[in-house]
Structure formats: C-alpha cells, structure tokens
C-alpha cells in the first residue's frame, strides 16, 4: 500500500479563502505563523492558509483533509460532518455503496444498510471491512450473517434496464445517484431505521449528485459524502459487502443460465472481450445487450473479435 502523504499543498483563490476561514473558525490555533491568514488544527492535521493563497495540510490526515476541498465543486461548502469523517465509525448510521459499475458484464447492485452502534462489535468480530480488500470467498461467508442481522435494501439494475437508461441519455453517475437515492429512501422510510447520519461513498461532488436527482419525486437530503467511506463507516462497509455478494450471485446465475458453469467474467479487460465473442457465437448478438453494458468500449472489441473468428 502507498504511504499516505504527510504534507499536501493546494492553491486557494479568494472565494476558497473565505470558505476555509468559515469552515475552520472553531479549530483555529492561537498563534498564526508569519504571512499566514490562519492556522487550524483538526484531528491529526494542521491546516495553514497563507496570504499568498498557499494552503498547506500537514500531518497523518493531510491527504484526507485536503480531499474535502479538492473533491468539491466551486460553489459549495463542505459539511462539518464530512470534516469529522474519522469519528463516524462510532455512530449509528445508514450507508450505501454500489458495485458492478466497472464490469462490462452483469448488473449494477446498490445496497443501503442501517447499522446501530450496538452492532459494531458483532460486525468487527466477523471481519467487516471494505469489500474491495476482502476476498470474494470471505464475502460469501460474511454476507449471509450481515444480511440476517442488518436491515438493508438492495437494488439490482439489470443490463436491459441499464442499457435503456443509457439510451435515454442518463450517464453512469446519474444512474448511480438514482440508485443510491432509491435504496436510501426505501430504507429510511421505515420508522425504526432512525438515524441522523446518512453516508454515501462519494463518486462525484455533492452538487452534481443532487443535480442528478432533480427529476426524482423523493430525494434523501443531508447526506454526508465521504471518499473511501467503506473504510470509515460500518454501514457503508456493510452496504458494500452485501452489494458485492449479490453481484457475485448474479454473475454466476446469469452465466449459468446461458450454459457457462463458471458464470460471467468480471472487469473490462481482454478476457471479457473473448468471452463476449464466444457469447455471440453461442447465443447471437442480441444476447449481449441482455447481460452486458452496451456503452462500454468492450462492445466494439467484442464485435471485432467475433468477426475475426468467423
Ligand atoms: Mg463505492
């Protein structure tokens, strides 16, 4: 694993300077270094803004803290909650995460999970962490236990439905935003799933996320967006694991229905292309749109490969 950077330097314009001052006003250090507008301390990070606009983050959380600002659109102020990201693991929360967006074959799966503080020990004991770091084998062992204990809502977007959305001009981030919003709304409308904290693993700036939902009837607001949320928030970690588990099952099922005992292949690499060519050979070109994402560059490669093998 790459080591976290201990110093990150950004450039702040006048608008950002004003936001920074407002954002860190409760964390200011008593002394201000020479030529600095302010210095603040937040958790394991020291933030210094210089008159020149140089903005410096130092300490263990330098990279994380700086990301609060680099991931923002120009018009928004980060929520104070995002800033306290590291502390979230101690709170009851609803969190959501998706899988399948980088795989040519198979659906997109999004899960929102509701995790109470009291359940943390149980979840830690069975080894809940980010599903990207846990092997699929472990996921298959953990997920049924999580599914049995943790209230959650999972939504599977099939390939035909995904392709239809794309045809209507809905891009991947909008697809994701719509799906996250849907599972969050469904989970939160149950009165027993009471929480003040709703966390989404961030895939785009918050303003863009809400813009994508402007035509939706019900929008879950006041979301805390966090990058690498599955590492910091138990509810997101659970959402991530359940999503992956359901995705694995779907890949197997879809493949087996077409006569491939191993299921459909993962990712978007060359192996996927040759599998696609075989699929056309066995089932005709129409089948591709039923099990693959037709806006991926793989489509052309698959067609070429198939033409070559004829
Ligand atoms: Mg994610």
Question: Can you describe what's shown?
Answer:
The protein has 310 residues and is of the alpha+beta class. It is built from 13 helices and nine strands. The strands form two sheets. Strands 7-6-5-8-9 form a five-stranded mixed sheet, with helices on both faces. A hairpin with a 3-residue loop joins strand 3 and strand 4 (54-58). Helix 5 crosses helix 10 (234-257) and helix 11 (270-283) crosses helix 13. Magnesium ion is lined by residues 97-98, 201.
Instruction: Count the DSSP helices.
Output: 13
H and E order: EHEEEHHEEHHEHHEHEHHHHH
Instruction: Give the C-alpha Rg.
Output: 22 Å
Which molecules other than protein and nucleic acid are bound?
A: magnesium ion
| Largest sheet report | 5 strands, mixed
Mean pLDDT: 89
Strand order of the largest sheet: 7-6-5-8-9
The total of beta strands comes to 9
Helix content: 40-55%
**Low-confidence parts:** 81-88
Content of β-strand? 15-25%
How is the topology of this model organized?
Blueprint: E1 7-11, H1 14-23, E2 36-42, E3 45-50, E4 54-58, H2 62-70, H3 80-83, E5 93-99, E6 108-115, H4 120-125, H5 136-149, E7 152-157, H6 159-167, H7 172-188, E8 198-201, H8 206-211, E9 224-226, H9 229-232, H10 234-257, H11 270-283, H12 286-291, H13 298-309
The structure holds magnesium ion (MG).
Give a brief rundown of this model.
This protein has 310 residues and is of the alpha+beta class. It contains 13 helices and nine strands.
């Amino acid at each position: 694993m790459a080591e976290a950077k201990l110093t990150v330097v950004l450039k702040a314009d006048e608008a950002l300077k004003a936001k920074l001052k407002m954002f860190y006003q409760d964390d200011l250090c008593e002394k201000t270094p020479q030529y600095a507008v302010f210095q603040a301390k937040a958790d394991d990070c020291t933030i210094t803004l210089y008159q020149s606009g140089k903005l410096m983050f130092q300490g263990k959380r330098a990279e994380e803290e700086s990301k609060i600002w680099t991931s923002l659109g120009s018009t928004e102020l980060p929520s104070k909650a995002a800033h306290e990201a590291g502390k979230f693991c101690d709170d009851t929360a609803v969190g959501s995460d998706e899988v399948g967006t980088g795989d040519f074959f198979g659906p997109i799966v999004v899960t929102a999970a509701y995790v109470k503080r009291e359940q943390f020990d149980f979840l830690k004991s069975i080894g809940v962490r980010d599903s990207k770091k846990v092997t699929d084998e472990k996921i298959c062992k953990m997920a049924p236990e999580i599914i049995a204990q943790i209230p959650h809502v999972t939504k599977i977007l099939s390939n035909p439905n995904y392709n239809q959305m794309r045809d209507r001009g809905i891009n991947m981030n909008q697809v994701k935003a719509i799906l996250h919003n849907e599972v969050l709304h469904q989970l939160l409308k149950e009165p027993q799933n009471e929480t003040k904290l709703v966390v989404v693993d961030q895939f785009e700036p918050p303003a863009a996320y809400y813009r994508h939902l402007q035509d939706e009837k019900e929008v879950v607001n006041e979301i805390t967006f966090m990058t690498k949320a599955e590492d910091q928030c138990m509810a997101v970690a659970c959402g991530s694991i359940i999503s992956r588990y359901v995705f694995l099952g779907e890949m197997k099922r879809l493949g087996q229905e077409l006569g491939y005992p191993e299921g459909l292949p993962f990712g978007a690499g060359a192996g996927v292309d040759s599998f696609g060519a075989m699929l056309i050979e066995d089932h005709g070109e129409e089948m591709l749109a039923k099990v693959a994402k037709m806006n991926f560059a793989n489509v052309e490669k698959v067609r070429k490969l198939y033409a070559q093998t004829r």
